[in-house]
Give the backbone structure.
Amino acid sequence: MSIRVLLADDEKLILGALSALLATEDDLEVVGETAGGVQAVEMAKNLLPDVCVLDLSMPDRGGISVVRDLQVAQPSIPCVIVTSHTAPGYLASVMAAGARGFVPKTTPARELAAIIRTVHRGARYIDPVVAADAIAAGDSPLTRREADILALSADGAPIDMVAQRAALSSGTVRNYLSKIAGKLKSANRHEAAYVARRQGWI
């Protein structure tokens, strides 16, 4: 019996190529393709695939959000995240959300097929290079709230606007950002955001 796979990636060239390559595997069947996370959730609910393969970053809803939604709606469907963003913090976020696999987009299609089989059997798979980098980097020094506030300010918005987004006072936001910059040994919030993004902490 074939393993039924749902693919979601907003890069349509990659989506099409991946679908075509996986279709050459006798025991894999691509039952759905989509370029968006919102539709990926709905398709997974309707198609009930054996495995979902999701891009980490999609414009409407990223892979982590999709995994969280499916953990509620269809927790029996295992998800594999594929991404070009392999900073250590992403791995922690992906696995905490409930994903069963995390692989870079440089992974050959034949190897991805083997990973899909592994996840379908109930095991987990983390790319060994990504795992080693994550261990070496250690955990994020930011609390969840600090990471959220830094993410809200990462586009360079004025403090007052960040405060509105966070539903906090401007003074509280300034205090948070000052503390965050200190933790990340950064000169200001902009440098702190750069550091946190590079590590995958926001």
